[in-house]
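Q: Here's a chain of 323 amino acids. Please give me its 3D structure as tokens.
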Amino acid sequence: MSNSEKSGPLSAIAEAIRAKRERKSGTLEDIAELEASLLADIENFDLDAAERRAKREYLANSGAGMVDPTLVFPEIAPNRPSAAIQEKPAPVIQKTEVAPPPSIPDAGSSLLDQLRQQAEVRQREIHSAMAERTSANEAIDQGLKHLFFYLHELVQQLNIVKPGIPRDYPLVEKYVLNRLEWQEGFADYRTQSQSAGALVELVTFSYHLKGPGSLFIERDGPSVERFRTTLFDFGLPFTCKEFKNERSYVERAEFEIRSDVSVSARWRADFGKGVILLETRNLERLGSALYTVRPQSVDQALLDDFGRLVLGQPNRFRELAKR
């Protein structure tokens, strides 16, 4: 081989070595730059954002999520303590506004609303009725208390005075109980239970009249039992002497009726109707009577006329009781 041929390959090899060395130096510089760039990318890499983005892509491309990645439910971003991460927030995905489906009327809620309205109306009615009833009940309570104090005082005085009562009590036919005098009287009251309000619900007033002698009345046949029942109803004390035939059938009877009359007046509250009922027995006549009195009518004038009625004096009690 000639020298020129040897020098050619040698020079080529030398050139290649030199070029390799130059490229190596450039490669090192490139590696250094790439390394710096990678470190910067790593430093600025948002791991949370990448994880969320990968999750959305996975849900969008798989059957587990919605087909449209924009319809994936939004996530609540966690608090980021790193300032660098805060400066580079995750990209905001524009979501398509989807109108909510029309609300279906809830039958249960609708029914409850109707019942709630009815209950409110009913409660107002109940409260109004209760207020009216309470006012009426208190008026009855006050009226009966007024009655009791008056009658209690009246009885105390009459038990001392023991006046004569100029009243005739016709019994049957020409027979009359009269010339009666006051013997003894009594007044009392009764209240409701504490749980019911402890209102006065009853005032009782009773007294006993007595006169001289007795009435002797004879009855026969079927009228014997009827007359006996009448005397029981009036509460009159009597004795009966029966006369029977051979078959033990009562043919006639002789009644001895003492001039002894028990009188009672019961002032009873009717809270349902808001009135006071006066139930009397043998007050103006033998037998029972019923009066209806408004509690507002129980005033001094009515009480005084009731006292006059008891004593057999002229009075306007019936007129005042109808007010």
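Q: Can you summarize the key feature?
A: The helical segments are 3-44, 47-61, 83-87, 107-161, 223-234, 300-310, 317-321.
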